[in-house]
Amino acid sequence: MSYVVGLTGGIGSGKTTVANLFAELGVPLIDADIVARQVVEKGSPLLSKIAEHFGDEILTSQGELDRAKLRQIIFRQEQEKIWLNNLLHPAIRQEMLSQIQACSEPYLLFVVPLLIENNLTEFCDRVIVIDVEPAIQLERATKRD
Questions:
Q1: Are 83 and 139 in a shared domain?
Q2: 50 and 72 share one domain
Q3: What is the pLDDT of residue 145?
Q4: Each residue of 128-137: b (16+ CB within 10 Å) or e?
């Protein structure tokens, strides 16, 4: 099994920049944000459950998840956010752990924004926390998405 280095930090802290530096060195990445998108790809069982719960209007005309519509719903309705988290978090966790177990490289970077909060440090041999001034985080976060 690989030596797992967890990488975490708040929004706009620079996790992606640091992860990309590791990737340039040939270190494989497991990124929670990427896995979260993979588990709700077009045709996936979880996407079907989301559409069943919220209605087909939560899908784009191409049958993909309309993230903007979903964000509007879950930011207005706490119960819907809880429902969605209860559906997605176990699946994301399981997929990430499966990817960790499947990795045969000597090192692996496990990129998870809420690594500590979601009790995932037990799967890490070491943890790197990216910390940056809140003003810089805010500036970076407002420039994206």
A1: no
A2: yes
A3: 55
A4: bebeeeeeeb
- 59 φ, ψ to 5°? -105, 150
Same domain, 73 and 109: no
DSSP string, 56-92: GGGB-TTSSB-HHHHHHHHHH-HHHHHHHHHHHHHHH
Take residue 138 and report the two structure tokens written for it.
């805010």
Q: Do the bridges between strand 107-111 and strand 3-9 make them parallel or antiparallel, or are there none, so unpaired?
A: parallel
47, 65 in Cβ contact below 8 A?
yes
pTM (2 decimals)? 0.86
pLDDT (tens digit, 9 = 90+) per residue, 114-144? 999 999 999 999 999 999 998 888 888 788 7
66 Cβ contact list (under 8 Å, min separation 6):
57, 58, 59, 60
Tally of domains in the chain: 2
Instruction: Please name which of 131, 90, 95, 127 lies closest in space to residue 108, comparing C-alpha atoms.
Output: 127
Residues 47 and 67 in one domain: yes
The residue whose two tokens read 């559409």 is: 51
**Structural domain of residue 123, as residue ranges?**
1-28+103-145
